[in-house]
Structures are given as structure tokens and as C-alpha cells.
């Protein structure tokens, strides 16, 4: 089983992301609500924010790139010792951060940042050799590593605001990644699914919309870098939100409702214009309904897109049909509930804040728990079609 687990890059990294999801959030709730503590030198809120971005999300990004780069470049996939090294760095970083009070800060930072740097070094040769159009994604990894390093530096100097700022830019970078990659795979997978069901469909986007969507998200990150939480940041987020909503208009989202493995992609992307709009309202008006815009972008966009990609890629790259287990459909809905409760539970539903945290965390944990129950056997066993990988 161990050999199969490391037979392809997505197997252990998607497993790591799933485990992180069901461990990190319940730990945070226990710390927040019941006074539990780790042997960490970091404030609990900063530990939570950092680990969700540079632990959970980063593991999923690694799984995606270790799977996509061989497909993009038509070169040999990643397996064996290189994958073991990447995953070992990720695991070591999580342990060191959880026990950071016992270690020099430079050691903790070095191991954690090394994960993304090693990932970049692993995927760089095939991308550069093939002069692939996705080579600029190396810059994404380098920028994420820089944000991670900046957050470590700030936390070592007890600068919580600086750490939050670095994590926010890291989130902006991952949202740009969703804009670029999601903007390709959502309409492509939708068109394939609709054709397979007998529908005659062509999804044609306006020529200007993709460059506009990408440019607007670059602008969001740039403004957040220099003028975070400003009125300008609110305006730029509003423009980006409208642009992303226009982009989705031609993706035939409603037509996918019978196919969970497709509509979950649309749902994840739909949180992007919604979250950006909430950010705009929060920074320009301060209206209560928009207070938790950041969770609309993290739980809504990032976690949902991660769930969508992991469930689909794990099936496709293990030689299985692209049809999710009915229980996974329930998992999708639970993740949606986690996002809705966390974002709107207080301002719209009027729930007590502790209830919001606990209900959202329970839905989140159940959703990723279902993922693990269904996909651990898939990720750890041989391909269904007998092929290597």
C-alpha cells in the first residue's frame, strides 16, 4: 500500500489535505472555545489562519501541480522519493509549527518554507524544458513561499498584524490561481459533461473577459499589498466581483445540476464573485452582513474548489469513472452549509457566535470526513484500469 500511495504525486498530498481539514479545524475550535493549547509560540488565531492557508491549501495545491504538470508537459509523472520528500517536509512543518515553542523560530520557518520551494524545484524542470504556457505558475509558488516566510518573520517578532497581512496576500495569490486554472477547467469540464449527456452546447466566453478577470485579481492582490482594508481595496474588490460574475454568465451553471462532480466546480467558483462583493461592502459600508467576507473566499471559494478538484482528479487519475459516490454529494452540501453558516450565520440568521463556529466546524469536518472515508481506499490502492501511477 505504501508503494501505491507514493505512485503518483496527488495521492499523498490530497490525503494530507484531507487529513489536515479534519484535524486543523476541530483543533482550532477546541482552542477557541475550550482553552486547549498546543506547544506553539503562536497566538491561536494566527496558528489557525496560517495552517489553513500554508498547511491545508498548500497541500492541495501541491497535489494539483504534481498531477497537472506531467499532463501539461507530456512528461513522466512524479513518484517515489521526490514525492516522499515533499510530503515529509509538509508533515515536519505541521509538527514543528504545532510545537514551535520548543524550537528556534528559524528552524520552524526554514522547514515550512522549504515545502513550497521544493515543490517549485520539482515542477520547474519539465515546465521550463517544454516552455509550457503554465510556467508562470512557478512565480505563484515563489510568491506563496515569500508570503509564508513573511508570516513566520512577523510571528517571530510578535507582529500579529504583519502576519495577518502576509496571510491575506497568500489568500489573494491562491484566488488568482483559482481564476486562472478554474477559468479553464470549469467551462471545459462543463462542456464535456453536457455533451456526454446528449446536449449540443458550446461555451464561448467573451474574448475580453478572461484577461479582465485575471487583471482584476492581480489588482486585488496589489492593492491589498500596499493599502489593505482601505476604501480603494473595497472598490477594486467590487470591480473584480462584477467581472467574475460576468465571466460565469456563459458557463451554463444551471444546466449542470444533475451532475454533482460538475456543479460543485460552479458552486466553488460562484463564491468568488460573492466573496469579493461582500469584501467590497465590508470595506466601503461596514454593513454587518458582509463582516465575514474572508470566510466566503476561504471556505466558499478555496475549500470548495479544493474539494471539487480532489474528488474529480482522484477518480480520473486512478482510472475510475467520473461519477462521485452519492455520499460525496452529501459532503458537497455539508461544505456549502459550513460556508453559509460561517459567513451569514451571525448577521443574517442571528445565531449566537459560538453556535456559528461550532455548527460551521461540524459541517466542515463531516464533509471532509466523508471525503476521507471514500477516497483513502482510492488514494492508497492501485489504479482500477491496471495502469501505473
How do the strands and helices of this protein lay out in sequence?
Layout: H1 2-5, H2 10-34, H3 44-73, H4 81-98, H5 105-130, H6 137-156, H7 160-196, H8 209-226, H9 231-248, H10 260-284, H11 293-316, H12 326-344, H13 353-380
Q: Quick summary of this structure?
A:
By secondary structure, the protein is an all-alpha fold. It has 13 helices and no strands. The protein has helices at residues 2-5, 10-34, 44-73, 81-98, 105-130, 137-156, 160-196, 209-226, 231-248, 260-284, 293-316, 326-344, 353-380.
- State the helical fraction: over 70%
| Name of the CATH class of the largest domain | Mainly Alpha
Overall tally of structural domains:
2
Count every helix, treating DSSP H or I runs of 4 or more residues as helices. Answer: 13
Distance between the termini: 13 Å
Compute the number of strand runs.
0
Average pLDDT for all residues: 94
Q: Per CATH, which architecture of the largest domain?
A: Up-down Bundle
Overall 3D shape: globular
Order of secondary-structure elements: HHHHHHHHHHHHH
User: How is the quaternary structure best described?
Assistant: single chain
Amino acid at each position: 500500500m505504501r508503494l501505491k500511495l507514493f505512485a503518483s504525486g496527488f495521492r499523498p498530498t490530497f490525503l494530507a489535505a484531507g487529513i489536515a481539514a479534519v484535524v486543523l479545524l476541530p483543533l482550532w475550535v477546541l482552542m477557541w472555545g475550550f482553552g486547549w493549547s498546543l506547544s506553539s509560540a503562536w497566538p491561536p488565531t494566527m496558528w489557525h489562519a496560517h495552517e489553513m492557508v500554508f498547511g491545508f491549501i498548500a497541500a492541495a495545491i501541491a497535489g494539483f501541480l504534481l498531477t497537472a504538470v506531467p499532463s501539461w508537459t507530456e512528461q513522466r509523472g512524479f513518484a517515489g522519493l521526490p514525492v516522499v520528500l515533499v510530503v515529509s517536509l509538509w508533515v515536519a512543518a505541521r509538527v514543528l509549527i504545532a510545537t514551535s515553542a520548543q524550537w528556534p523560530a528559524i528552524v520552524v520557518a526554514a522547514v515550512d518554507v522549504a515545502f513550497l520551494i521544493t515543490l517549485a524545484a520539482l515542477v520547474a524542470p519539465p515546465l521550463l524544458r517544454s516552455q509550457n504556457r503554465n510556467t508562470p505558475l512557478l512565480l505563484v509558488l515563489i510568491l506563496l513561499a515569500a508570503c509564508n516566510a513573511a508570516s513566520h518573520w512577523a510571528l517571530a517578532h510578535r507582529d500579529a498584524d504583519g502576519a495577518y497581512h502576509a496571510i491575506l496576500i497568500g489568500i489573494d495569490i491562491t484566488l488568482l490561481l483559482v481564476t486562472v486554472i478554474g477559468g479553464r477547467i470549469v467551462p471545459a469540464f462543463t462542456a464535456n459533461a453536457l455533451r456526454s449527456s446528449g446536449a449540443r452546447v458550446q461555451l464561448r466566453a467573451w474574448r475580453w473577459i478572461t484577461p479582465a478577470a485575471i487583471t482584476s485579481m492581480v489588482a486585488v492582490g496589489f492593492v491589498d499589498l500596499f493599502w489593505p482594508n482601505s476604501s480603494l481595496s473595497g472598490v477594486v474588490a467590487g470591480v473584480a466581483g462584477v467581472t467574475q460574475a460576468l465571466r460565469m454568465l456563459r458557463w451554463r451553471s444551471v444546466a449542470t445540476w444533475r451532475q454533482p462532480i460538475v456543479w460543485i466546480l460552479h458552486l466553488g467558483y460562484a463564491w468568488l464573485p460573492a466573496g469579493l462583493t461582500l469584501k467590497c461592502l465590508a470595506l466601503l459600508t461596514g454593513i454587518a452582513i458582509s463582516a465575514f467576507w474572508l470566510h466566503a473566499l476561504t471556505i466558499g471559494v478555496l475549500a470548495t474548489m479544493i474539494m471539487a478538484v480532489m474528488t474529480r482528479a482522484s477518480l480520473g487519475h486512478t482510472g475510475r469513472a467520473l461519477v462521485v459516490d452519492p455520499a460525496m454529494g452529501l459532503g458537497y452540501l455539508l461544505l456549502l452549509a459550513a460556508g453559509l453558516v460561517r459567513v451569514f450565520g451571525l448577521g443574517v440568521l442571528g445565531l449566537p457566535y459560538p453556535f456559528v463556529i461550532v455548527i460551521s466546524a461540524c459541517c466542515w469536518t463531516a464533509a471532509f470526513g466523508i471525503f476521507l472515508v471514500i477516497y483513502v481506499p482510492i488514494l492508497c490502492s492501485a489504479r482500477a484500469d491496471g495502469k501505473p501511477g
